[in-house]
Design a protein that fits this description.
By secondary structure, this protein is an alpha/beta fold. The chain is 38% helix and 16% strand. The chain is globular, with a radius of gyration of 17 Å. The chain binds adenosine-5'-diphosphate and magnesium ion (MG).
């Protein structure tokens, strides 16, 4: 499986925007792209009927990913578990009287790739967020074995959160491909520039940036390139 797994330093840090930009870039280059999101929660915060979604900034994650990828996948194929309350997936599932099934997630992710060349997967919350009481976003990233991209804000507090996430990804035996700071201001402050350099130096990985995007117009987004190979293969190559 080729593609990317987009995690982040937390919730509301730009994972969906980064995953959408990656999917859009690949699509614009001619690849057939499938998108995947193990669980969406917080749908209560969106208008009830999809017909009234009149702006992409108001689309829930799975719908924005679909738009960016130019994909025809149905909601169930992109995000097999969808919940109303804005809480961690393991709790949202519990409140709905069910449990997320890791086998179903792995199967759905694999099925999504059947008619696509690339899979762009967005995690839920941060890297150590539980999907079930004992199956974390980290475990899904390991199972899918895609290069991990870390979305993070550009401002104060991001060095620590980003380095902790890089450490957790490496501890899982995966090699993070890059960090993407988003939204990256048109005129970054000395602190924001310093954050970028510091994460690059202490994290030993490339740090990319994504400017503020008009989410309703994927055609206007700049390209963002990430390696789509297998991270395990990459670390084996380095060890050889
Ligand atoms: N480059 C960007 N351009 C425009 N809006 C952005 C950008 N990066 C982040 N945002 C905004 O920040 C908020 C959080 O981003 P989102 O991708 O939904 O985070 P997450 O998926 O981590 O919860 C959203 O309102 C999103 O529109
Ligand atoms: Mg999101």
């Amino acid at each position: 499986m080729r593609g990317a797994f987009v995690t982040g330093t937390g919730t509301e840090v730009g994972k969906t925007v980064v995953a959408a930009a990656i999917a859009r870039t690949a699509r614009a280059a001619g690849d057939r792209v499938a998108v995947f999101k193990p669980a969406v929660s917080g749908l209560d915060d969106y208008p009830l009927r999809p017909e009234v979604w009149d702006h992409a900034a108001e689309l829930p994650d799975h719908a924005l990913l679909r738009l960016a990828a130019g994909s025809r996948q149905g909601d169930d194929q992109i995000a097999p578990y969808r919940y109303g309350p804005p809480v961690s997936p393991h709790l949202a599932a519990e409140l709905a009287g069910e449990m997320i099934d890791p086998d179903r997630l792995r199967g759905a992710a694999l099925a999504a790739t059947e008619s696509a060349q690339l899979l762009v997967c967005e995690g839920a919350g941060g890297f150590l967020v539980p999907l079930t009481p004992d199956y974390l976003v980290r475990d899904l990233a390991e199972d899918l074995a895609l290069p991990v991209v870390i979305a993070a804000p550009a401002g104060l507090g991001t060095i620590n959160h980003t380095l902790l996430t890089i450490g957790a990804v490496r501890e899982a035996g995966l090699e993070p491909a890059s960090v993407v700071l988003t939204p990256w201001p048109r005129d970054p402050s000395p602190m924001e520039r310093s954050n970028r350099e510091t994460i690059e130096r202490l994290g030993s990985l490339p740090v990319e940036t994504l400017p503020p995007l008009d989410l309703s117009d994927p055609g206007s987004w700049p390209a963002i390139h990430v390696p789509f190979g297998s991270p395990k293969a990459a670390s084996m190559l380095r060890a050889a």
